[in-house]
Structures are given as C-alpha cells and as structure tokens.
Amino acid sequence: EMPDIILLDINMPEMDAWVFLDAYEKLQNTLSKRAKIYIVSSSSNDQDILKAKTYTCLTNYIVKPIRKTDLIKELELGR
Asked: Do residues 18 and 47 make contact, with C-beta atoms less than 8 angstroms apart?
C-alpha cells in the first residue's frame, strides 16, 4: 500500500533520493495513489535544490535541521 507521505534524504544507503525520484517518476502514472514526497536534507547546496525542482513528483525540499512544529506545518500545507 502506498504511504501518504515519503521523506527522503539525498544520501541514503543503497538508493539515494535521486535514484528513488527517477524510479518513482517512471512509475507514478501506474499508481492508484500518489504520495507527497519531501527531501529533508542537511544540504543547502543550490545545485541540489535546483536539481530537486526538476522533479514534478517532489512536493518540497526542506533543509535540516527542522523543528517538529515547522515540519508539521509543512506537512499540513502539503504544497
């Protein structure tokens, strides 16, 4: 079953965020439900942020550290 929200870090073991997003974009038209996907990363690198904007399936890019209240607010907005 597809989750409602997926949180990714750019650097994850086995499959980084970019590999995941590439795979998800190929599959998203076959899914009965689409998750809201966020990158939550310590990288504030402009190249990472610009690359993230190229993914139509990505809801938002959040730079860590993030407070719990700010994360909850972001998820409620669900941009």
From this structure: no
DSSP per position, 7-60: EE-SS-SSS-HHHHHHHHHHHGGG-SS--EEEEEES---HHHHHHHTT-TTEEE
Beta bridge partners of 60: 38
How far is Cα 10 from Cα 36, in angstroms, rounded to an integer? 16
Dig out the tokens for 49 from the structure: 């942020």
pLDDT digits (tens, 9 = 90+) for 1-58: 889 999 999 988 889 999 999 999 999 889 888 899 999 999 999 999 999 999 999 9
Structural contact between residues 40 and 17, judged by C-beta atoms closer than 8 angstroms: no
pTM: predicted TM-score of the whole model, two decimal places: 0.87
Q: Which two three-digit tokens encode residue 55?
A: 């993914």
Torsions phi, psi for 58 (to 5 deg): -85, 130
